[in-house]
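Lay summary. Proteins are chains of building blocks that fold into shapes, and those shapes determine what they do. In this project we predict the shape from the chain. Here is one chain we studied, written as its sequence of building blocks.
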Amino acid sequence: MIRTFDARAGIDAVVAALERSPETVAPEIHRTVDAILAAVRARGDAAVCEHTARLDGWTPARPGDLALAPVDFETAGRAVAPDVRAALEYAAERIERYHAAAMPKSWRITDEHGSILGQEVRALDRVGVYVPGGRAAYPSTVLMTVIPARVAGVKEIVLVTPAGAGGRIEPVVLAAARIAGVTEGYRIGGAQAVAALAYGTSLIRKVDKIVGPGNIYVALAKARVFGEVGIDMVAGPSEVVVVADATADPDWIAGDMLAQAEHDPMARALLVTDANELIPRVESALARQLETLPRRAIAVQSLQANGALIRVGNLDDAITLANLLAPEHLELLVAAPTALLPRVRHAGAVFLGGHTPEVVGDYVAGPNHVLPTAGTARFASPLSTEDFVKRSSVIEYSHSGLRAAAPHLKTLTRIEGLDGHGNAAALRLDTDGGKSS
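And here is the predicted shape, written in a compact code that computers can read:
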């Protein structure tokens, strides 16, 4: 059911065997996305309504039907069960607390000449949040994308999510949006939603940045509009690498692997262990738990195509392999996880110890579950308040600071052939009569 590898003969060979071929997107999907973006850019709301009717299974009578009214959020808040609301509020409080602690700060330093240098952090004015929907509800994604924006100080947070039959959106999604701090929302999905946010229409004003996961059409559309607006990342299938030693519970490992595998046939779940006896025990636990898993068919496809149980010589080799894979989620199910943490170089999120299943990160721990995938943790980071702010450098030179810099400015501007640059500084020193400050 699942592949096994022995990395003791060579880690690089295992990494090569696990490499996914670059995903080939059918040309017709590219053409479809390009056509939708062009149509919305040219015809605005009319094109959005047409594609919504064609792709989302309901037909707005007029563009105004796409908009969510305040009463929609209020009604949804009353419709959810008390335990659901309590869970949403519990998760929201923890997400807010974490992201408030991670908020970038403005700062200043003063150099030896009294010149002041620093940075100012300013929130973006308006952001769009894409939340998948239609056939399923993802309130956790609402919380994870909206709350950091609000904590960062974004004043206008626009939710777009595809509706089901009749334009219906699951009440739990709207209840989460109200708790998180959405300021406006629209029943739009797919590439047309991305286009509306990026280009603007009569109904929807354009945003500064678009964040949130989506299907291949959404991902391609986000990639296309980057530059017109900012985006967070282009996310791929979910993945987990579990590093475990002989102290780990095989049932816990199997449960964590299946929690990823049930996402999608393209999801990846890997065990990396230095305990040879653990591999058959995990394999047996996977088979047992699959028998009662509602999404068994999806999980089996995922494990067969993308899962693996990998034997390494020691835990140092396990971390070396994990760093080469740069996974979205990395679990350290070992006796001393904090001892291994300093060696972890590349992972979207790291989960330490047996009582930290990856699922807590998906929902309630506080750190974001919008994470870099497909090895991009080598250079990318989780969604955070930093994604909703921009930084401006601040420079205030003193007279003595400018005088100290002048000869170096003269040299550098001369070798670059930009004499006017050097002259801009020299003029101040030639005409200020020796003033000091």
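What the prediction tells us: The two ends are 75 Å apart (CA to CA).
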